[in-house]
Q: What sequence folds into this?
């Protein structure tokens, strides 16, 4: 659904947690439903506060209500400054404060409006959720709004993102509030703050490791230079040292990729496969693809088994395209032709067909070259594709087909008629009346 043009998604876990919060009222269905509505409306208004300010800054926000509350996100290339982030963060709780103020004003101006059992309960719930929860939300604990404000202030002061102050403060405050909440018998609050403390402990460890790993930038670049120089033994040594030292997931992934590349350069296929398996299991197929794509085309036949393993393990389009190129480089053209037809490679198949068309022609596989070119032409007509199909048919001795594809090339915009007349592949066509007529007609 959309509210004020902003997409809103309600996850099942949101309803589950809201029902849990209202579970003490199951014996009173009216009050149970009333609290569910108050929680839904209040959190939606909170997120709309964030989202409307986002939109005012030129962003395209979307809202998700889920088990932990609400989340407003956006996809945009526009960088949001720390000050704007603070405004976005504060807009949520202050939207709730505004609603609480409106409810309070109505109560003061029209005291009889809520003078009933359900009315009084509605008033208490609205004030608790919008005022009480709003104040809690301003605690300096990530990922709550108060924590994001502290994170943005730290960025303003240090001019850097990913600082240690915000998660450290968040960890201490969340742990303290969790202990207090458990002692006070507020178990839901205690559990929530305990989760936040754990999240910030992990975030703090990651940020600390990332900051520490900045010292490894130099050695990482040296290892990459070893790969460029195709110095496998140095690369393996450097990559293993980086793996032992790196703390952050980003640097560990980069070191693992370099280790795979070094083992490949050393022709240690068994170890390379083991490390590639580990890389793919921890960091996903994209990381494996990045490690394998760094090789030159003439090196692909040698690492074809690894590329095949990576593709068979994940079946991603990127690895499929890489595997196809490796098959073409190894002159395994029929396998490449079959693989390109896989629906998962639809985004790549036009270019892959052209690549296969060219490679097969150069290898003297004219029938397969013509077939690949025909399939490429079906997906995007271009003069050079049709021209090359004509060349393949001509070299295979199929005069009629060659003439037909020359016509298609000219119709698609091929206008280099002198080159057409001098094309070595068309030597056998030059005395053909249709060829003479075609070249004469188009001059």
A:
């Amino acid at each position: 659904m959309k509210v004020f043009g902003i997409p809103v998604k309600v996850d099942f876990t949101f309803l589950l947690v809201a029902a849990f919060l209202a579970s003490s009222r199951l014996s009173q269905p009216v009050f149970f439903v009333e609290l569910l509505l108050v929680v839904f409306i209040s959190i939606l208004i909170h997120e709309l506060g964030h989202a409307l300010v986002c939109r005012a800054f030129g962003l395209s926000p979307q809202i998700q209500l889920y088990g932990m509350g609400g989340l407003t996100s956006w996809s945009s290339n526009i960088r949001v400054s720390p000050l704007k982030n603070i405004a976005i963060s504060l807009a949520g709780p202050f939207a709730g404060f505004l609603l609480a103020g409106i409810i309070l004003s109505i109560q003061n101006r029209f005291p009889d409006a809520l003078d009933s059992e359900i009315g009084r309960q509605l008033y208490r719930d609205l004030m608790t959720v919008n005022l009480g929860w709003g104040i809690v939300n301003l605690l300096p604990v990530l990922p709550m709004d108060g924590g994001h404000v502290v994170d943005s202030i730290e960025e303003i002061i240090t001019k850097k993102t990913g600082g240690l102050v915000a998660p450290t403060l968040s960890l201490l405050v969340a742990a303290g509030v969790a202990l207090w909440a458990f002692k006070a018998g507020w178990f839901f609050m205690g559990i929530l703050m305990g989760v936040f403390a754990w999240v910030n402990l992990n975030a703090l460890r990651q940020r600390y490791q990332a900051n520490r790993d900045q010292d490894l930038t130099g050695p990482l670049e040296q290892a990459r230079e070893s790969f460029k120089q195709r110095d496998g033994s140095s690369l393996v040594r450097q990559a293993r040292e980086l793996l032992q030292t790196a703390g952050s997931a980003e640097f560990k992934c980069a070191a693992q990729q370099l280790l795979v590349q070094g083992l490949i350069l050393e022709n240690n296929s068994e170890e390379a496969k083991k490390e590639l398996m580990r890389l793919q299991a921890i960091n996903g197929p994209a990381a494996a693809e990045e490690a394998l794509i760094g090789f030159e085309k003439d090196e692909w036949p040698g690492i074809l088994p690894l590329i095949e393993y990576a593709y068979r393990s994940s079946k991603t389009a990127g690895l499929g395209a890489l595997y196809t190129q490796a098959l073409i480089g190894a002159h395994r053209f029929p396998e490449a032709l079959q693989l390109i037809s896989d629906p998962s490679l639809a985004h790549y198949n036009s270019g892959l067909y052209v690549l296969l068309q060219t490679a097969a022609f150069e290898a003297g596989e004219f029938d397969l070259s013509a077939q690949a070119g025909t399939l490429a032409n079906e997906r995007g007509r271009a003069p050079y594709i049709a021209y090359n199909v004509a060349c393949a048919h001509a070299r295979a001795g199929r005069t009629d087909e060659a003439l037909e594809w020359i016509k298609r090339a000219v119709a698609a915009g091929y206008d280099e008629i002198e080159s057409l007349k001098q094309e070595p592949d068309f030597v056998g066509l030059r005395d053909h009346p249709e060829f003479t007529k075609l070249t004469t007609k188009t001059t």
Notes: The chain has 21 helices and four strands. The longest strand covers residues 61-66. The radius of gyration is 32 Å.
